[in-house]
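Thread: Newbie trying to understand structure tokens

Hi all, I'm a second-year student working on a class project, and my supervisor (Dr. K.) asked me to get a predicted structure for one chain before our next meeting. I've only ever worked with sequences, so writing a 3D structure as a token string is new to me. If someone could post the tokens and maybe explain what I'm looking at, I'd be very grateful. Here's the chain:
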Amino acid sequence: MAVIIGSARCDERGKLSGGQPGDQTGKEVMEQEFYIHKKGWYILRPKSETKARIIAQAMQQACNNSNIGYNQNNRGGVIVQLNRYKTLGAIAIATECDCSTLVRACCMQAGINVSNFTTYNEVPALVSTGEFDNLGKLVSASQVRLGDVLCTCSKGHTVVVTQAPARTRTCVSNPTTYKVGSTYTVCASALSVRTGPGTNYRRKSHAELSADAKKHDPNHNGTMVNGTRISCKELRTVGSDIWFRSPSGWMAAHYRGDVYIK
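---
Reply by user tm_fold:
Sure, no problem. This is what the structure looks like when written as tokens:
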């Protein structure tokens, strides 16, 4: 499956400001094949798969709505009209955005309340909502999933992944009964390893993993890939979630209703 991204790019003259409201060329806000930006990408992944799908759908709506154009001088117009029309696809008058306000609008359509941001502070702004995990720097297209938000590693550009493999959510319909000392299998597409039992704990880097775990982190971003066998050293229940400590650190075994380790 080809990976496709959507974003607000530039006005009808190829400039950042001064253009006419609405998309004059069909290319001001559009989808395109995935590429790795020269500044690199950070991957911001919605914790909720449902919200990830809505974010992707919202971006597609924007890309297909000729009333949404690009102009940094009136970048907040899309937020005003989203509040009025409720979805990006329903906006019926010509308005404008830039790359970051369009991503914000997509998040708002998914029910994620986030304050105004630019690509300068987008990563902390989205993470602070509690709705996103920062998966670190992207290495290859194989890492991205539907609904991921990508932001350049320094001020520049931001996009939403509108076509990509869906996340591998569960291998079983109900949580496994875990036992310390037993061995289990990662059934997520990529599972973060953390310093403690909860998303408030820092994600570990590739260098912090055990020698064996590093063999199962081909993207070198501190995540275990689908099919990795791991032994349980300790279990911790946090609310309704179950966290699992392996030799490398803590991982979500059952989180927000999804099973990641079976």
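A couple of things are worth pointing out once you decode it. The longest strand covers residues 249-255. The mean pLDDT is 91. Feel free to ask follow-ups in this thread.
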